[in-house]
Amino acid sequence: MNFIFKDLPSLDQTVLDKIIELDQTFFPYPWKQTHWNERTDSFSLVYDGNLDRFALFELGDDRVALLHKILVHPKQRGQKKAQELWEFAQTELKRREVISVLLEVSEDNQQAISFYVRQGFQPLNKIKSYYSDGKSALRMQLFLNDALG
Ligand SMILES: CC(C)(COP(=O)(O)OP(=O)(O)OC[C@H]1O[C@@H](n2cnc3c(N)ncnc32)[C@H](O)[C@@H]1OP(=O)(O)O)[C@@H](O)C(=O)NCCC(=O)NCCS
After folding, report:
1. 11-65, pLDDT tens digit by residue?
2. Is 128 among the domain residues?
3. Cα of 86 to ligand 1 centre, how many Å?
4. Distance 109 CA to ligand 1 centre (A)
5. Which of 68, 81, 89, 141 has the most C-beta neighbours closer than 10 Å?
């Protein structure tokens, strides 16, 4: 594995294109191309050099990171690949003095919820009709100082 942590605006276009393709092919609620192209300054991407897994964070001034997306290619799932990526990301977030990570996940995405619980995330609250198809989201939080590693 060869993990890389990069701010979105400085990401190579060919890498970004591949990440967008993964998102649009395999993510439950993919972003439109225009959303990616905004390349918001505060967004950072963690990815494997093989481009088969990534996580997208938004780092705020309040030392809270929002985890917008984490994805492993379907052929690679069930082998703790997301956990390897998460461990690397967590180390980088701590280096940037992030103290907690927040996320929203569809309440029927059991694979993702069980992954987050295993990493130490705790449920905060439910947000009704959060997604475009009317599904509700579960908001979860992790304090990095409490996390293992
Ligand atoms: C959530 C996700 C990143 C987890 O990645 P992963 O590398 O498969 O994670 P893990 O290997 O830790 O295991 C996932 C679970 O599925 C089980 N599993 C076993 N074989 C599997 C397979 N072939 N495919 C998928 N999951 C499998 C694992 O045993 C594990 O179950 P458990 O939590 O009860 O132990 C991945 O499922 C994914 O990319 N999902 C689509 C994107 C998404 O929904 N992201 C989260 C919202 S932001």
Report:
1. 999 999 999 999 999 999 999 988 888 767 899 999 999 999 999 999 988 999 9
2. yes
3. 13
4. 10
5. 89
For residue 29, being part of any structural domain is answered with: yes
Is residue 148 domain-resident?
no
From the CA of 77, how far away is ligand 1's center (Å)? 5
Query: Tell me, what CATH number does 114's domain have?
Result: 3.40.630.30
- What is the pTM assigned to this prediction? 0.92
Question: What's the domain count of the chain?
Answer: 1
Instruction: Report the run of H or E that residue 3 belongs to, with start and end.
Output: strand 3-7
* Residue 64: burial class (beta carbons within 10 Å; 0-12, 13-18, 19+): middle
Task: State the Cα–Cα distance between residues 70 and 47, nearest whole angstrom.
Answer: 10
> Which structural domain, as residue segments, surrounds residue 93?
3-143
